Amino acid sequence: VLKGNSLPNLYLVGFMGTGKSSMGKRLAARFNLRFIDSDEEIEKSSGMSIKDIFAKFGEEKFREMERDFIENGHPKTGCVVSCGGGLVCRDGMPELVKSKGVSIVLFAEPEVIFKRVSLSKTRPLLNVENPMQRICELLDKRSKYYNRSGICVSSSGNPNDVEERLARIY
Ligand code: S3P
């Protein structure tokens, strides 16, 4: 019987506010896996906040840090990894993530995303005049990457139902 720490990693991918962290924590508890958040790991290893990394070094540098994290910055098994919303949105990244374990994409309507993220001040990309418009633009640009990052699961509705959907796929 596989113990939690020998199970393949589960990667939760998708836009900001689609529930990667909350679902990741539930699934980690359920399957006895370790929960890891790519943003938190990058903040720990760099000693800087995501906001400061964007402000001081720019988005491209942050994307390199995300790639390093996926390539060799985390354990190879036994983890649920909540991936920052833009992590797979570079050529080669969906394939890289899928090569590391089971990858599932969470999606939600722009309105749902807007409600979930509008309280947060920690997401530099949405710190603009019109966040709803920005969400739609980004979703549009990113859909081709999300679409090839794994099985897509809706995160709208009852969180218990979403958890069941994800658990069945994993
Ligand atoms: C980003 C999403 C954020 C974080 C950074 C950039 C993005 O992660 O990595 O602010 O480009 O979509 P969450 O999806 O966990 O909010």
What can you tell me about this protein's structure?
The mean pLDDT is 95. The chain has 170 residues and is of the alpha/beta class. It is built from 8 helices and 5 strands, in the order βαβαααβαβααβα. The chain has a 5-stranded parallel sheet with strand order 2-3-1-4-5. The protein is globular, with a radius of gyration of 15 Å. It has a single domain, classed as P-loop containing nucleotide triphosphate hydrolases (Rossmann fold, 3-Layer(aba) Sandwich), CATH 3.40.50.300. The protein binds shikimate-3-phosphate. Shikimate-3-phosphate (S3P) binds at residues 16, 39, 50, 84-86, 123-125. Residues 16, 39, 50, 84-86, 123-125 line the site of shikimate-3-phosphate.
**What is the general shape?**
globular
The CATH homologous superfamily corresponds to: P-loop containing nucleotide triphosphate hydrolases
Strand segment count: 5
Give the biggest sheet: 5 strands, parallel
CATH architectural group: 3-Layer(aba) Sandwich
Indicate the radius of gyration in whole angstroms.
Answer: 15 Å
Q: Which class best fits the helix and strand makeup?
A: alpha/beta
Listed once per kind, the bound small molecules are: shikimate-3-phosphate
Domains (count): 1
Strand content: 5-15%
Distance between termini? 16 Å
CATH class: Alpha Beta
How do the strands of the widest beta sheet line up side by side?
2-3-1-4-5
Q: Please give the share of residues in helix.
A: 40-55%
At the third CATH level, what is the topology name?
A: Rossmann fold
Number of helices: 8
Uncertain ranges: none
What is the N-to-C order of secondary-structure elements (H for helix, E for strand)?
EHEHHHEHEHHEH
Q: What's the overall average pLDDT, rounded?
A: 95
Family: Belongs to the shikimate kinase family.
Binding site for substrate: 39, 63, 85, 142
Protein name: Shikimate kinase
Subunit structure: Monomer.
